[in-house]
Structures are given as structure tokens and as C-alpha cells.
Design goal:
Helices cover 35% and strands 22% of the residues. With 262 residues, the chain is of the alpha/beta class. It has an eight-stranded mixed beta sheet, with helices on both faces.
Length: 262
């Protein structure tokens, strides 16, 4: 009879403990466990990790900069329902930014079942907070202090909510990719309070992004200007859609160019 590798047995055991000890979470930890099992063993670039957030663990991938000393680190947060090694958008960023002098830490964000809507996710924004805090703490233990947050799509809402609650936790820059995406018939209940953030912001979207992302770009820019940070910018990636299908490298170039000008 074939037995499971020790690494996978340990991972399953950890996930069973997490699921039973923190079942009050709305986050679908069982779905996360399945994604971890499907993805972790196939990570060839970087180190697969299980970071601790309160009483549960979550999948992350850390990759060191190819240049030393590094400029800092970027915490990468995937879009709704995906994982830290999502090939369309996350993988090009988490591996490519290391070539520009940045460590990367791609983290698993809270997920719900496939039928869940944007408004369902608004109910669990706070469940991302301990994960982002754990990512910051992990980097601080490595003596990394220059830390940028990069969030795509639904995770932008989670990142902005975190920035409101933890303005002094340690983020030195914020990159929102596809900011303001929602579901049809479920508009944002309030606009992003970007005027309150004192760190530089890159608001970057695709040329063919979702209508709401494009429609509210002027309002976002007005709020960013009110914050008064001279290095904040808005950028557009040409010939791209919301998921940057086949344009991940173009997104990488824009993000790296902005980061390295800070």
C-alpha cells in the first residue's frame, strides 16, 4: 500500500487542527487546505510556508531577491478565490520582482465557496487582518522593514480595510491592482478612503478593466491627491483585462518601475 509523504501528512494534520480549533471563521479553511495540497508541492520558485494567524495557519510563498542587499519586500495578495501561486497574475509578480531587487511574500487570502458574491466577501474583510499582520511580522523577523503591500481585485478591499485599522503596522507603500472591482448589481458601499493614507499609492488597472474600476478612477485619483504624497500615481496597462491574461509581464514592469522610484 502506498503511503503519503511525511510532509503531506504533517500538512494535513496541521490543517485538521486549524479547521477544528477555529471553526468560527467564515473563511472556507477546507477549501484552502485542498488548494494547499494541490499547489504547495509544485512550487519550484521560492519556499512554501505555513504562517500562523491566531489559531489557524495559512499557505504562503517566500522568495528572496536576486540582488543583495534587497530594496525591501512586497506582500502579494491574490484575487478572489485564487491562491499564492496563481499563474495568471501572482506568479509573474512574485518571481519577477525578485529580479528587480525585492523579496516577495505571496499569501493565501480568505476564501469562500464558489457561489459567494462581493457582498459576501465584505463580511469577512476583517479575517484578512491577522494574515497581513503575520506576513508583516514574518518579514520583520528577517529584519526587513521596507514593506509594500500589493493587492489585486477583491483583496484590494481587504488591504484597504487593513490599512484603515493598522496605519502604523509597517506598510511603507500600497499597490492596488484593479481597484474597486465588484459584482454586477453590488456596487461599493463606500469609496476607498485613500485621502487618509500617508504612504505612497500606485493605483494600476488594465485598459480593458471592469467598468467600475475605470469609472471611479478619477475619484480615486482625487483622493490620492488629497493625501498629498508626491510619489502616488495612477497607471494603465494597455491591451490588458482585469486578470492581466497574457500581460502579467507588462504589469510586472510597471509595478517594478514605480517601486524602484520610491
Amino acid at each position: 500500500m502506498q503511503t503519503l509523504p511525511l510532509r503531506k501528512l504533517i500538512a494535513i494534520f496541521l490543517w485538521l487542527i486549524c479547521f477544528t480549533s477555529y471553526s468560527s471563521l467564515a473563511t472556507d479553511l477546507e477549501k484552502e487546505r485542498r488548494m494547499y495540497q494541490q499547489v504547495a508541492d509544485y512550487v519550484m520558485d521560492g519556499e512554501s510556508l505555513l504562517l500562523k494567524a491566531h489559531d489557524h495557519s495559512f499557505f504562503s510563498i517566500f522568495m528572496e531577491s536576486e540582488e543583495l542587499p534587497a530594496r525591501g519586500a512586497v506582500i502579494i495578495m491574490h484575487g478572489r478565490g485564487y491562491h499564492p501561486n496563481w499563474p495568471e497574475l501572482v506568479y509573474p509578480l512574485r518571481t519577477g520582482l525578485t529580479e528587480y531587487g525585492w523579496h516577495t511574500l505571496s499569501i493565501q487570502m480568505p476564501v469562500l465557496d464558489n457561489q459567494s458574491t462581493f457582498y459576501d466577501y465584505l463580511e469577512i474583510l476583517h479575517e484578512a487582518h491577522p494574515r497581513i499582520n503575520a506576513a508583516i511580522d514574518f518579514l520583520h523577523k528577517k529584519n526587513i522593514r521596507n514593506i509594500a503591500l500589493l493587492a489585486h481585485s477583491c483583496s484590494v478591499h481587504m488591504a484597504v480595510d487593513w490599512l484603515e485599522k493598522f496605519p502604523d503596522k509597517g506598510a511603507s507603500a500600497f499597490i492596488g491592482v484593479g481597484m474597486g472591482s465588484t459584482d454586477i448589481g453590488q456596487p461599493m458601499l463606500k469609496q476607498f478612503p485613500l485621502e487618509r493614507f500617508k504612504i505612497p499609492i500606485l493605483d494600476i488597472r488594465a485598459e480593458n478593466d471592469y467598468p467600475a474600476v475605470i469609472r471611479f478612477a478619477p475619484d480615486r485619483w482625487k483622493r490620492m491627491q488629497q493625501a498629498g504624497h508626491k510619489k502616488s500615481e495612477q497607471r494603465v496597462v494597455e491591451n490588458a483585462d482585469h486578470y492581466f491574461t497574457a500581460r502579467g509581464d507588462a504589469l510586472l514592469v510597471e509595478v517594478a518601475d514605480w517601486l524602484n522610484k520610491l
